[in-house]
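Example: 5-methyltetrahydropteroyltriglutamate--homocysteine methyltransferase.
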Amino acid sequence: MEVLRLAIHSSNLGYPRIGEQREWKKALESFWNGQLEEANLMETMKTIQLSSIKKQMAKGIELIPIGDFSLYDHVLDTAFMFGYIPKRFGQESERRWDTYFAMARGTSSQPAMAMTKWFNTNYHYIVPELDGLQPRLMENFLLRDYQFIKDNLSIETKPVLLGPVTFLILAKLSTGVHWHKHLQLLVPVYIELLDELYRAGVRWVQVDEPILVQEIDEDIVAAVEYVYHSFHQKVPGVQLILQTYFESLSNYPEIVSLPVAGFGLDFVHDDGENLYNMKKYGFPKGKWLAAGMIDGRNVWKSTLVQKAALLEELSKHTEHLIIQPSSSLLYVPITVKHEHRLPKGLVDSLAFADEKLDEVRLLAEYAQGKRSLSDLCHYDEQTGEALRLLRGQSIKKTMHPIEQTERPPYAKRRQAQQQHLKLPLLPTTTIGSFPQTREVRQARLKRKKQEWDEKQYQTFIRKQIAKWIEIQEKLELDVLVHGEFERTDMVEFFGEKLGGIACTTNGWVQSYGSRCVRPPIIFGDVVHLCPITVEESVYAQSLTEKPVKGMLTGPVTLYNWSFVRRDLPRSAVLNQLALAVRQEVLALEQAGIRIIQVDEPALREGLPLKRQKQPAYWQEAVYAFRLATSAVRLETQIHTHMCYSDFSEMIDIIDDLDPDVISIEAARSGGELLSLFEIHTYRKQIGLGVYDIHSPRIPSRDEILIQLERALRVLRPDQFWVNPDCGLKTRTEKEAIASLQAMVAAAKEMRNRLFVSLQGGDQDDSKR
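Written out as structure tokens, the predicted fold is:
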């Protein structure tokens, strides 16, 4: 075989940090709750890290990453390591991890740093703040981890570092300040870090620059050239792999001419463009090609014979090949070995992180001549029957366009809804969930272990609903929710109830901080089997005269937060999901629920990173949402919610979705989203989150008033809703109630001010 003449290494780009049984999450939350000392936390984290490294060693991975393990987020780690600690958190102290977690989660007196989504994934990173700060190498975390692993396991590892260009472009700067200003300051600090690694014996370093798969201009190309020429000049002994993922490399000829040891390219999510560019422009002689061949973002097994054919094609363009996943494995669960409840055919079709490393090893051994093509055929045959069974599932309903029901114009809907709902100015509400306390989790566990029957469990859920309806009425919220106590997760809950979707037992994936989710697996026709949310919503509505929102997850989020079969057209699956949501919307309406919220926090996550591919995605996403929500009556009010995305590029899309009310995260961004509405006239109703629910700190009434004042400078009072920026399931009861008290008080105060203003009282400051 042609591939046998290659120099071959197996590699991994990153491993899930949460632990096989979520030990990482449990240790962090125990530390934050004061139940675990810092020394014990660090000892637990070292144990988890060592276990992950040992597992990769056992899988035969040669270039094992370090720097992928983190106590919260790898982007936060980079900022902290380089001294980008905002001044509001004070100077570095002996209790440095208190500062680190304060940056991520906030304190009683200071808000947390902003958080947003990592490219088009559901992983959230902490946005670095650069203003007024000079970079310095506070501590070389990579050197610390390299020495720790070497001392304990006697192996060489590959440090992984977020590249300076991606880091700076993703960071937060004051208006008018360009990231280039920081580049000349930051590059010497990177060089200092790399030099320390080299002097300690490190030879391979993976530098992640995923920004290079987006459209980049000449300024970015020039910055990349400056950075990597500087690295080559100052630390020539380190073999740098310039790593990209999630798409094809942009500006291919310029980037592959950089003086680095090799280039990491994604051959899974690139639509064939990386190979096309290699054929058209060639690949630099003597450089390593780190080929991402195993899908790092989905859970289906690879067809290794097809991968072998790709290997042979790549071998025509390079003699130095590294075989690896397409991206870090952070985005998939750790192992399928705990999945005993999934249908057998489905289990046999899945590869989580550990199984993907097995696939990397098999391909590397094939390329090294240690395995034959028949070995790969045997692997494929073991799963082929199961895959054929799944692929045989018909797509019965949605291969052809479905006629939508067009809703009446918004102005007409608004009038009918206000007559029906009779809401006050600046109506107050929450996004949906209330605290999932230890008591709630224990009740769910008792049901799972069959210690409680279904009647006992439902009685408990009703008590929780009644309790929080009473709390909401005492708080004087205007639009209530039932609290979602029966739901483990907003996507998993619906995945458990819809046909054609399976849910895992232990398929946890990190979303942000210690928050983990279990993405469902869409393997067949999606079918609405029976009403899913009606019983709880109707019961909650029976307890109050105020309107209660029905709470649903939208079709695009169900798609983007699930693992979907690769062989199905995206539009077909989206439309099936939309039809299922539509049936639930109509069931709620028929049961008397007049406000229905169809959440789409993942609307932007499936958006291709290349602009030319985006219009088709938006068309399909908007179509699916409107298909799900357009059949309701005039007086039924449709809400949606989105969070932690770049809304500046999608405000027109939000308008096209045509909801009556949208709530958007705005608290961590300091209200920067408001600048959009200074240039874009948005005529429907909107709630910009007025406080950050991801931080344990409780906002004051005056803080929220400031947020309201800023919002009402650019939005009309009659279109503005007052709400938190997301659901409250991760907060304690005390935190949730205190924060909502402050929110309602601020809304009342603002209503009074607006009333006085309308009465002409704003001419006398003493009356304010």
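The longest strand covers residues 521-528.
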